[in-house]
Structure formats: structure tokens, C-alpha cells
């Protein structure tokens, strides 16, 4: 590999993308994105994975128009980032679909209904939402996300990764009725060129702080795993200097 393909980490204002756990000072240039030096690193560090994925799934792929109705399946960090994208886009109504109804204004819990959640959403919205974003990896949620969008113009975006043996099944009339199904990886962002722009969004109006629920020093890193496994937090910042 030519030496020009690598660079020293002499600029602290960077986001590292897809790096292995142990990194010294020499990294591949494709793993580094130069960002606004005024951006607080203890906030924008969470943009390198799930937050950007959910945000981009809405803004870059679903592309809701101002005043749209949007359904978000799964209200973890990725799903809440997708909801944040809907807010930024000017959606008039954002409906969450999750088994845990806390920390969201309008939530449909599938366990609370004796009919498929897509039928519940269709009744709530008078025919279906304009856009939906699925962030769970559940094949049933994927099908519901597609079938809950409105005939004629509805767009569903799949973000979650299903099990390898799952099969997506829906009636062909959902296609003939002009519902659109799309997929995305990393929210259709190109890391090196697009992440600096996402950081600028944060500097202007992106509400990133609400995704950071905990901070721990490196010596207490096991607490971060505990928060994750218990579902108590969205993103935990691990401070290397603490």
C-alpha cells in the first residue's frame, strides 16, 4: 500500500470510521473525516454509526416532504435518529412503533392491539403514512412498515438487518398500488465526504445531546456494556482521559 494512502492523526478534529478496537497513530485515510474544529468531540463522536444511519435513512432515502406523516418502527438510537430526521424535514406527525412506549409522544405498541399494526396505523392516519422507516431487523416489522404506507405515494425504508433465513412476504397488490420499498446502509451517507456536513447540521439545528444518556471513564467501561444490555441508555460516551 502506498504511503500516501495513510496519514498521521495529527489533527484532533476527526471522526474515526470503522476502526479496529486498538488504534495507534497511523490509520488509513479512508477512515478519517475532517470536521469543523469548533464541533465538540464529546458530542459528534456518536455520529460515526447508528445516529447517522437513522438520520440519513429519513433525510436521504425516505425524503419526507414538509407536513408529511412518518412512522418509525423501533425506538432505539437508530429509530430515534430517524425520528429526528423526520422532525428536521418538517413532518407534521411522527408515530413510533415499539414494545416500549416510554420517551416518545405518540407510540403504537403492537401488543396492545388485536389486529396487525399496519391496520392500526392506516386507521389512525386515514389510509396510511406518507413515509415509514424500519429500524428493528424484525421481518414482521419490515412487512408492517411497508404495508402501513399510503397507496399511491407511500415510501418505506428498511434499515434493520434481518436473520439470514427470513423471507419478506407481502401481497402483490401492495406493489401494484404504488407503494415503494427501499433499503439503505449507513443512511446513504458517504462517510468521508458527508459526515462533515452532518456535523454542520448538528452545529445548526440537529438535537444530538438527547442521544447521549450516559458518560463513563474508560476504567468503568463495563458499565457502558451494562447500560446497553439492559436497554437503559441510547449512547454512552467513554472518556479515555478520565
**Mean pLDDT level:** 84
Low-confidence stretches: 1-16, 19-24
Helix share, percent: 25-40%
CATH class value of the largest domain: Alpha Beta
Label the structural class.
alpha/beta
- Please describe the biggest sheet, giving its number of strands, its sense, and whether it closes into a barrel: 6 strands, parallel
Morphology call: globular
User: What is the H level of CATH, i.e. the homologous superfamily of the largest domain?
Assistant: NAD(P)-binding Rossmann-like Domain
CATH topology of the largest domain: Rossmann fold
Largest sheet strand order? 7-6-5-8-9-10
The helix count comes to 8
The termini sit apart by: 36 Å
Oligomer: single chain
Element-by-element helix/strand order: EEEEHHEHEEHEHEHEHEHE
Number of individual domains: 2
Number of strands: 12
CATH architectural grouping of the largest domain: 3-Layer(aba) Sandwich
Percent in strands: 15-25%
* Radius of gyration over C-alpha positions, nearest whole angstrom: 19 Å
What does this structure look like?
- This protein has 242 residues and is α/β, with parallel strands linked by helices.
- The strands form four sheets. The chain has a six-stranded parallel beta sheet with strand order 7-6-5-8-9-10, with helices on both faces. It has a two-stranded antiparallel sheet with strand order 1-3. A two-stranded antiparallel ribbon has the order 2-4.
- Helix 3 links the parallel strand 5 and strand 6.
- Helix 2 crosses helix 3.
Amino acid at each position: 500500500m502506498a504511503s500516501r494512502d495513510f496519514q498521521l492523526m495529527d489533527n484532533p478534529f476527526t471522526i474515526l470510521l470503522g476502526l479496529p478496537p486498538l488504534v495507534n497513530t497511523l490509520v488509513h485515510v479512508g477512515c478519517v473525516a475532517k470536521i469543523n474544529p469548533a464541533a465538540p468531540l464529546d458530542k459528534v463522536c456518536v455520529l460515526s454509526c447508528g445516529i447517522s444511519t437513522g438520520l440519513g435513512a429519513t433525510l436521504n432515502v425516505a425524503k419526507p416532504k414538509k407536513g408529511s406523516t412518518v412512522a418509525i418502527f423501533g425506538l432505539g438510537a437508530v429509530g430515534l435518529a430517524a425520528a429526528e430526521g423526520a422532525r428536521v424535514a418538517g413532518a407534521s406527525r411522527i408515530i413510533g412503533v415499539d414494545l416500549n412506549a416510554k420517551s416518545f409522544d405518540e407510540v403504537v405498541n403492537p401488543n396492545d392491539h388485536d389486529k396487525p399494526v399496519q391496520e392500526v396505523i392506516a386507521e389512525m392516519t386515514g389510509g396510511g403514512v406518507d413515509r415509514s422507516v424500519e429500524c428493528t431487523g424484525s421481518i414482521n416489522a419490515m412487512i408492517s412498515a411497508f404495508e402501513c404506507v399510503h397507496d399511491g405515494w407511500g415510501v418505506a425504508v428498511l434499515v434493520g438487518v434481518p436473520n439470514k433465513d427470513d423471507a419478506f412476504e407481502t401481497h402483490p397488490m401492495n406493489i401494484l398500488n404504488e407503494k415503494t420499498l427501499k433499503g439503505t446502509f449507513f443512511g446513504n451517507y458517504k462517510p468521508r465526504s458527508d459526515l462533515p456536513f452532518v456535523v454542520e447540521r448538528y452545529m445548526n439545528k440537529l438535537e444530538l445531546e438527547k442521544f447521549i444518556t450516559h458518560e463513563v471513564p474508560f476504567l468503568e467501561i463495563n458499565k457502558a456494556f451494562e447500560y446497553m444490555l439492559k436497554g437503559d441508555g441510547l449512547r454512552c460516551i467513554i472518556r479515555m482521559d478520565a
